[in-house]
Design a protein that fits this description.
alpha+beta; single chain; Beta-Lactamase; 5 domains; five-stranded antiparallel beta sheet; 684 residues
């Protein structure tokens, strides 16, 4: 600098600095503003050194007065020492000198070498919560998140700067609050060192909205693409990126035909559908799309295109794709299971029927159609019990009522009426159908046609009767021979001529009595060996049936020295049943009791009335039944009798007959202490 230049530090300025100190930041900001406007070289032309200027302590007015000789042309023929372009720059510097302090945006200056703060404005102090003194003791990196403080961050902060806007940073306030700021940086010189002037803009609210939008997009379980009018992808959510194995940076900005295979776009007409939505402003729904990304199994989507209305204009559309691959797979699996179950039901040899809670028929399988001759179309919606006999209809109604009220279902036997008017005996099992709330919504009825079983049981019954006849043959022969012998003797006496009338009459009575007794035995035998073909149940007195059975086994009991004692109530015990079948039950029970006592003993036959039932007990004092055999004695062909002495069918036949009559049969026994068989039948 030449010595002719005006003094760079006027006296009044020195006095003012002592009287009114100004912060170092303000002084430095002014110098940096002057230097950044007029240029480093022109600043040197003023004759103001950094050391001297740094010691200034001027007010705004004093600062302007100090630089006026270098910015204004002097009058009165006084030569202006600074060039015109320098004066212009000083004028700009004077006008902008207060922008740093007065800016509403946070601003600071930091050293590019040390990253230390050189100055901050009031807006930065207010925004971040640090005092000026705290700022000047910090480095710029301390505004960043601890996790981001690294050599990479330091390198980014020390890079050459420009005035263009840079990336968005996350800064931490003094109270720990994290904010998002967009920064613009400018290179400046300060005291001969490279520095950086930073202008920060707090964009936290906008960033939070952007993050919320991104979070909402990424939490949507559907795949979402936002498209503009040029069919370019504006944004894609995480679900789409994961399913398509793409990244956001490689998807945003690309056209739709760069994201989806061309064959899919052509086959689905997707591009045209999207353009139609832009034109019509109406969404499309429920279209199916099959898509396969490279290296990924085929996925099935249902997609829709939704217009995005902004200020009354459709400037974007949203492509929503729901991945229904698993639902489609499960649907196919369910349909396959339904077909399998339907095939099982249709192929079953048993009758399978489903009804609603009122008993109206819903389904009817082929076995039911074969058994009755009715097709499902003829019966659907009709009450099931309309096709049972009178007794069966009542039992079915009771079971349906119990099942609808939540009680366990059961099983019955009833006759099923066929299309040609015949009846087929069927054993029915009722099971409840429930919904997810465990409420009864219907019934599954499985029936087994007992026609062939009844024929087989009848054959077994007849053979068992013949076997029983063989056992009773000796007693029967004795019973018949005795009255025949008496009748024969009386007849021989009648052949003599000299008989007195009284003796003749007595002989005649003996003959008549013997014939009548033999006739009774023969009738009982015929009734037992050839029961009535009518198997329909009729009201009967159970005591009379038991007495007839006792008559047939009485002689066998006497031969084996067995006493039979009866304990019957005086009034009849009325039940509904088939007399010949019930007689067979009691004959078998009595013969079993007799055979259990080869050395003699006692058989007690007890009948009694119970609420709703008639009980009949047969108790013997024989060998008893072991615990191991108690659960097997009603099984067909199970016997402990020596070979040739028994078929093992007697008790199984008894069980079947009692079950057909809606009753039950049980046994109580201990080895060596005898047995008690109890038959329980519904009373009338």
């Amino acid at each position: 600098m030449s010595s002719g230049n005006p003094s760079p530090i006027p006296a009044f300025a020195r006095e003012s600095a002592l009287a009114r100190p100004i912060t170092t930041v303000t002084r430095r900001a002014r110098l940096i503003a002057v230097e950044s406007v007029i240029g480093h070289d022109a600043f040197g032309d003023t004759g103001i050194t950094y050391t001297e200027a740094g010691n200034w302590g001027l007010t705004d007015m004093q600062f302007r007065d100090s630089i006026r000789p270098y910015t204004l042309e002097q009058k009165d023929n006084v030569k202006v020492s600074a060039p015109v372009h320098v004066q212009r720059r000083f004028q700009i510097a004077e006008a902008t000198a207060g922008l740093f302090e007065n800016s509403r945006l946070p601003m600071w200056i930091y050293d590019l070498r040390t990253l230390s703060f050189l100055g901050v404005n009031d807006a930065a102090v207010e925004c971040y919560g640090y005092s000026r003194e705290e700022f000047l003791a910090m480095t710029v990196r301390q505004l960043h998140l601890p996790a981001e403080r690294s050599a990479l961050l330091d390198g980014a902060l020390k890079l050459p700067v420009s005035s263009v806007q840079e990336r968005t940073w996350q800064h931490v306030k003094k109270d720990g609050t994290v904010i998002y700021v967009e920064v613009a940086r400018s290179a400046v010189h300060f005291a001969g060192e490279s520095a950086c002037l930073v202008i920060a803009n707090d964009v936290s609210e906008g960033k939070r909205s952007e993050l919320l939008y991104r979070m909402l997009m990424d939490t949507i379980p559907s795949s979402v693409l936002l498209l503009d009018e040029n069919l370019c992808v504006v944004s894609a959510n995480r679900n789409f990126l994961e399913k398509s194995r793409q990244i956001a940076g490689m998807t945003a900005g690309r056209r739709l035909d760069d994201v989806f295979p061309e064959v899919i776009l052509e086959e689905m007409g997707l591009e045209q559908q999207i353009r139609n939505v832009f034109t019509s402003s109406h969404a499309t729904q429920g279209q199916r799309l099959t898509y396969r990304a490279p290296g990924v199994p085929i996925r099935v989507y249902y997609y829709s295109v939704v217009p995005v209305n902004w200020a009354g204009q459709i400037d974007h559309v949203m492509l929503l794709m729901d991945d229904v691959t698993e639902q489609v797979r499960l649907g196919e699996e369910i349909r396959r299971m339904e077909r399998h179950l339907a095939s099982v039901v249709e192929s079953a040899s048993d009758i399978v029927i489903s009804t609603d809670t009122e008993g109206n028929i819903l389904t009817w399988n082929k076995a039911a159609q074969r058994a009755t001759g009715y097709s499902l179309a003829e019966l659907k919606g009709r009450p099931f019990f309309d096709y049972c006999d009178q007794t069966g209809a009542a039992s079915v109604g009771k079971l349906l009522s119990k099942g609808a009220s939540g009680e366990s279902s059961g099983r019955i036997e009833s006759n099923l009426r066929t299309k040609d008017g015949r009846c087929r005996p069927v054993s029915w099992v009722f099971s409840q159908m429930t919904d997810d709330a465990a409420r009864t919504v219907g019934f599954v009825v499985v029936g087994r046609d007992l026609t062939e079983q009844r024929k087989f049981e009848l054959q077994i019954l007849e053979s068992q009767k013949l076997a029983a006849l063989g056992v009773m043959a000796r007693g029967i022969a004795h019973e018949i021979r005795t009255p025949l012998a008496v009748s024969s003797s009386a007849a021989q006496f009648l052949m003599e001529d000299d008989l007195v009338p009284e003796f003749r009459r007595e002989c005649a009575e003996k003959i008549h009595s013997g014939i009548r007794k033999a006739s009774t035995i023969i009738e009982n035998l015929l009734r037992f060996a050839h029961p009535s073909a009518d198997k329909s149940k009729t009201p009967l007195d159970l005591l009379r049936v038991v007495k007839e059975a006792l008559t047939l086994v009485d002689h066998q009991a006497k031969v084996q020295n067995i006493e039979i004692r009866t304990h019957f109530p005086p009034e009849p015990c009325q039940v509904l049943g088939v007399p010949s079948l019930l007689e067979q039950v009691f004959i078998n029970l009595l013969l079993n009791a007799i055979n259990a006592m080869p050395s003699g003993g006692t058989v007690d036959v007890l009948a009694e009335q119970a609420p709703g039932d008639v009980l009949l007990r047969v108790t013997d004092t024989g060998e008893g039944i072991s615990k191991e055999d108690l659960n097997k004695i009603f099984d067909p062909f199970f016997t402990r009798a020596p070979l040739g002495k028994g078929t093992g069918l007697g008790l199984s036949i008894c069980y079947s007959i009692v079950d057909q009559h809606g009753g039950s049969i049980g046994v109580e026994s201990e080895s060596g202490k005898g047995s008690t068989f109890t038959v329980r039948l519904p009373s009338l």
